[in-house]
Amino acid sequence: MWDIIWYALLGVLLAGYLALDGITIGTGIIGRLVAPGDAERRTVAAATGPFFLGNEVWLVAAAGITLGGFPGLESTVISGLYPVIVLAVAALVVRGAAVQFRRRVTTPGWLRGWDVVVQATCLVLAVMWGALAGSVLGALPVQDSRLAADAGLLLRPVPALSALTAVAVFALHGAVFLAVRTTGEVAERAAGLARRLAAGAAGLGALTIAAVALDGRARDGVLNALPAALLGLAAIGAALLAPRYAASGQGRGGLRAPAVSALAALLPVAAIAVAHWPEAVVSTVAGQHLSVEEAAADPSTLSVVGPVVLLVFPVLLAFQAMQWWAHRGAADDRTPAYL
Hints:
Elements: H1 2-34, H2 38-48, H3 52-69, H4 71-80, H5 82-102, H6 108-137, E1 142-143, E2 146-147, H7 151-154, H8 157-181, H9 184-214, H10 216-220, H11 225-248, H12 256-276, E3 279-281, E4 290-291, H13 292-295, H14 299-326
Antiparallel strand pairs: 1-2, 3-4
């Protein structure tokens, strides 16, 4: 029972990270498009700044759950895809430094340079998370609890399409957020960009689903096709609906529109988990699948630490809710930027 609880908690934390930090990834990707001037970029920073570090806590918590509760996943997926994960973590570190350094000097060249770094690292993050999701969705070359991965794994059709889809979805998520959480021209540009991005994100998502159906290795990894496909289609629907909610709430603050676009970012986590269940990792080698129970730590360990984790999790939720409530209004050029 505890292994299922921990596995569900891991999924919630990963989904929460993609939904929340997906905003800062998305605004980093599109920031220079919707806010060409420094004053407008300050408005974007004011809208996202209060949530910047808090969003990353979800990823740290997910990493802790993985390393402490699922050593089997650490020795297969994390070890086998180590370069991808290291690149993503490096992008997170560089992005954080770039955001902090940007405001230390106000010369145009300095500001433009760090803006480019922020955009580049956010693109790297979107590509890496998308490629990682597309890779683990299919059957992996796991044998004796070891993943023998190479660069070709990430260049297969499904991971490549998944990476492009992630860029489009995160950009859409950021545009929807800025449309309702900023005012003036930034909100107008973001709302217009969200409408244009929705069709691209939905189209790429549909292509990814089609590629899963056509690619043998990807299809072999989907043990429960119908619920996984329904969750994928729900994510596509959320991507198409989000700009409509953004247009109706433009410049008014609120959570409805970002909550809808967040579904497009987090539902793929649920789709992957459902597609594999009851396995945690599906192997291309017969009899080498890694079940959730096998990937989990010893039941005695989970049962001792589990109650503590379950007590801390509501605190994380309460802190995040407090942040959003305290900064529920739309930001403008007079709002403190924090960064």
